[in-house]
Design goal:
The chain has 233 residues and is of the alpha/beta class. The chain is built from ten helices and eight strands. A hairpin with a 2-residue loop joins strand 1 and strand 2.
Amino acid sequence: MNAADIMTPDVITVRPDTPLDQIVALMLEHRISGVPVMDGDSIVGIVTEGDLMRRVELGSDTRRSHLLELVSRATPLAADYVRSHGRKASEVMSENVIAVDDTMLVGDIARLLETRRIKRVPVLRDGKLVGIVSRANLLRALATRLQALADPLPDDRRIRMAVFDELYRHKWGAQVAQLDVTVEDGVVTLWGIVHSQEQKTAVRVTAENTPGVKRVVDHLEDVTATTTMVPLA
C-alpha cells in the first residue's frame, strides 16, 4: 500500500488571504485538524490546530517578562505576535510544509509522522496536490489490513477510484465530510460523516453497484442520528 491507496482525495484548502474565522469554521464543519494553504497550484503553508492554540482571543498567546523581552531578538518576538494576532491564513500558517509523493509506502508515511511529530501530510503527484494522509487514514488502513492480511489486488485500486468517481458526480456524494474508501480483495470499507440516513444509504449503494465489489463494510457516521431534539419552552 502507498499514499495513493489510503489518502483522502477531496482536500479542503484555503488561500493565503482567507480570513481566520472562515478557516476555523471550515475545520469545525469538516472535522479536520489542518488545511493546506494554496497559492494557485502551489502549497505555501498549512494551518493546523497547533497553529491556533496560542491566540490572543483565548488568552493563550505567549507572554514574556519585560526582562526577557529586552534580551530577546526582535524578529522572533514580532513573528510570535503576528501568529497570535494574525487574521488571515498567511499570517498564522506554518510555512515549512512536509509533503509526500503519492507513491510513498504507507509504512514510510507512518514513520515520517512519528519522527516529525505531525498529524498529516499533503500528497503530491507531479508536484500538484492530489490528497492528504492523516493519522486517521493510517488507522483505517490498519483496520482494513487486520481484517484481511494480504497485499491489495490490482483491481482494488480501480474499484476505489471508481467509487470516488461516482460519488463525486453527485452533490450528495461530494458533501460527505472526511470521505474515505479502502478496498481489500474486493471488500469496500466506507468512512465519513453524512447528514442523513438517505445520504448514508446512497453512498453504500454506490459502493455496492461498483463492478468488482464483493462486500461493503459501512462505517459512515450519521450525525443526525445522534442529534438530541430540545423541546421549545
